[in-house]
Specification:
It holds the Pfam family DNA_ligase_aden. By secondary structure, the protein is of the alpha+beta class. It contains 26 helices and 22 strands. It binds nicotinamide-adenine-dinucleotide and zinc ion.
Length: 672
């Protein structure tokens, strides 16, 4: 390579890697695999080594990937939060061991740990209380996300036992269990929101939310694996000892951590977890190997980016080849069309894989998929396997390209794609069967109107028989009892139950109704936010895009989806019908907010996170009804309104003073 070419390549790699870092750390939506990212990074490092004159101190090889955003307070780390050097090969691990041996001689131990696939967090404890949680950021400073971390059940707000230092920092990994990921991601998808590719991205996206109540709704977990404090080396000789100590203070330390005396034992640990990792309920992407003794760690020291006394051995995501049998296209309730690859069944990471996601048309083009192609399928961090490439040598001659349909596979309408979006939609909202059925199924679902006595199958049957064509038809079903009774498998009792369930749904509060309408991107939380901000459906219908986007955490994408929904006459008609049958289209507290003195002379403190209101909303409610807010717990306090994850010191103090501790629901009842 000529020097100018080298420089060009370095520039290209640097630009690409910076872009990928941004997508990975800040957006939590990476577009390439970790393996490919690491390959590019390694290429850049070797070019910089060969041509040190081109080494930029700002190069991605010299920096810890940054997740700093403007939404949080930036906090400087007392001890830098570095990355780990990593390898995918046993060979390089042996080289690491030799480098260590050269400095330390033969007398040292390794601690082997699982490499949890989440995001690093640094926690500060003062006198046994969690006072601060900061993300890694660029390694020297990060985002302060304490309120969000307080919602994590396995992170103690107050330490148990004694014996912990007055001030220390502890680091670990925040992650999400696979089951929670799958459940929440399914919800996102159903709401028309962009799903996260894997639990890591979901956890990373969650910790950066502005709304702690929403964070609390998404169960995160946290393993701790580094202790920092002044005089640490006097208190503990080794990393292993410190792990045992922090465990006794109440921290969650992974039980699979192992002390190894030889490199052979390390390799055994790696080999064991290579297969066993599929049995864990969370994702790991490798093993971390750390020199145990603190004195020996000091001898080895650091590079600009990582410690010399530790290394990560990363597992390459498992992949297998199989044959693409066909591609089918599913139409969701919002009209989004998703391609799914049907595969010749194959064993992968301990499960049989028959289908893989293809995301959208771009993905099919990128892969240049042909019928009967031999494809490699990967199941890395992701639960749903994906196709990563086509084996061109095995392509069957004369097979044709997979063509993304131009028309809806369900109703034949010409598909549309909005500028800047990758997904195709069927615009035939009123005539496309899977959309109609999907919308009604969404409306009756547990999280929306929770209509008892009615399930997804019933909706399908009633639709096929022409009894329901839109949500509002549910409320006139009672006029068609005779036709219902003629249906197979519909006994009198079950018809009664269903009609009763439908009737009862009229009591469901406005946020549920709004969510039930199934507006694209308006999930449960967004619906609650919109309902609480605008109070009535009419106010929301008349709100401008800017007014909607001004609500906390509601972006333009959601706002324009809402205004678009209400711009359609058919939706307004539907709402009018639903109003006429007395569904709830306003926030009930509203009247009380303005008029009552029910809380006159009563004092309150609000603490923790709440299911249905933000703390600000509860404060407004109290004040508007004549109550007073206090700033600290004392004899003057009448009520402590306690939510999830309330600080334990407040609780103890309130109990000591015999102050009534009430819930959000109790407070609302006081206003009734
Ligand atoms: N796909 C992409 O676009 C993209 C972009 C940027 C980074 N990445 C991936 O992220 C990696 C770089 O991320 P990184 O700097 O966080 O490095 P890393 O993930 O390779 O290793 C360091 C991190 O491991 C974590 N860790 C997990 N378990 C641990 C344990 N037991 N002990 C200590 N640390 C533990 C810590 O958070 C630590 O910061 C790259 O190697 C790449 O694979 C991917
Ligand atoms: Zn259609």
């Amino acid at each position: 390579m000529q020097k100018s070419d080298v420089l060009q390549r370095i520039t290209t790699l640097t630009r690409e890697l910076n872009e990928h870092n941004y997508k990975y750390y800040v957006l939590a939506q990476p577009s390439i695999s970790d393996f490919d990212f690491d390959k590019k990074l390694a290429e850049l490092a070797s070019l910089e080594e060969a041509y040190p004159e081109f080494l930029d101190p700002d190069s991605p090889t010299q920096k810890v990937g940054g997740d700093i955003t403007k939404q949080f307070k930036t906090v400087r780390h007392k001890w830098p939060m570095l990355s780990l050097s990593n390898t995918y090969s046993e060979e390089e691990l042996r080289e690491f061991d030799e480098r260590v041996r050269k400095v330390l001689g033969d007398h040292f131990e390794y601690v082997c740990e699982l490499k949890f696939d989440g995001l690093s967090i640094s926690l500060t404890y003062e006198n046994g209380l969690l006072t601060r949680a900061v993300t890694r950021g660029d390694g020297s400073q990060g985002d302060e996300v304490t309120a969000n971390v307080r919602t994590i059940k396995s992170v103690p707000n107050r330490l148990k036992n004694d014996g912990y230092p007055a001030l220390f920092e502890i680091r670990g990994e925040v992650f999400m269990h696979q089951a929670a990921f799958e459940r929440l991601n399914r919800e996102r998808q159903e709401n028309g929101e962009i799903p996260y590719a894997n639990p890591r991205n979901f956890a990373a996206g969650t910790i950066k939310l502005q709304d702690s109540a929403e964070v609390a709704r998404r169960p995160l977990d946290c393993f701790l694996y580094f202790l920092y404090m002044d005089g640490r080396d006097r208190a503990f000789k080794t990393h292993w000892d410190s792990l045992n100590a922090v465990k006794s203070w109440g921290f969650h330390v992974c039980e699979h951590t192992k002390l190894c005396h030889t490199l052979a034992e390390v390799f055994q640990f790696i080999a064991y977890w290579e297969n066993e990792r599929y049995r864990l309920t969370y994702d790991i992407d490798g093993i971390v190997i750390k020199v145990n003794s603190y004195a020996q760690q000091d001898e080895l020291g650091f590079t600009a980016k990582s410690p010399r006394w530790a290394i990560a051995y990363k597992y390459k995501a498992e992949e297998v080849e199989t044959i693409l049998k066909s591609v089918s296209y599913q139409v969701g309730r919002t009209g989004a069309v998703t391609p799914v690859a049907n595969l010749e069944p194959v064993q992968l990471s301990g499960t049989t894989v028959k289908r893989a996601t293809l995301h959208n048309a771009n993905e099919i083009t990128r892969l240049d998929l042909h019928e009967l192609d031999t494809v490699s399928v990967e199941k890395g961090g992701e639960i749903i396997p994906k196709i990563i490439g086509v084996n061109m040598e095995k392509r069957v001659p004369e097979t044709s390209k997979i063509q993304y349909p131009t028309h809806c596979p369900a109703c034949g309408t010409l598909l549309i794609r909005k500028a800047g979006e990758a997904v195709h939609y069927c615009p035939n909202e009123l005539g496309c069967p899977p959309q109609i059925v999907g919308k009604i199924q969404h409306f009756i679902s547990r999280k929306a109107m929770d209509i008892e006595g009615m399930g997804n199958e019933t909706v399908e049957v009633l639709y096929k028989k022409g009894l329901i064509k839109q949500i509002s038809d549910l409320y006139s079903l009672k006029e068609h009892k005779d036709r219902l009774e003629q249906l197979e498998r519909f006994g009198e009792k079950s018809i009664q139950n269903m009609l009763h369930g439908i009737e009862k749904s009229k009591e469901k509060p406005f946020p549920k109704v709004l969510f039930g309408l199934g507006i694209r991107y308006v999930g449960e939380t967004i619906a609650r936010k919109l309902a609480n901000s605008f109070k009535t459906i009419d106010a929301l219908i008349h709100a401008t895009c800017e007014e909607i986007a001004a609500v906390e955490e509601i972006g333009e994408r959601i706002a324009s989806s809402v205004t678009e929904y209400f711009s359609k006459e058919i939706h307004l008609q539907q709402i009018a019908v639903l109003k006429s049958v007395a569904l709830q289209f306003s926030i009930v507290e509203e009247d009380r907010v303005l008029s009552s003195d029910k809380l006159a002379n009563k004092t309150f403190i609000i603490s923790g996170v709440f299911e249905n209101h933000s703390r600000e909303e509860l404060t407004q409610l109290i004040v508007a009804n004549g109550g007073k807010m206090l700033s600290s717990i004392s004899n003057k306090l009448n009520y402590l309104v306690a939510g999830d994850k309330m600080g334990p010191s407040k609780l103890t103090k309130a109990q000591k003073l015999n102050i009534p501790i009430i819930s959000e629901a109790d407070l609302i009842k006081m206003l009734a």
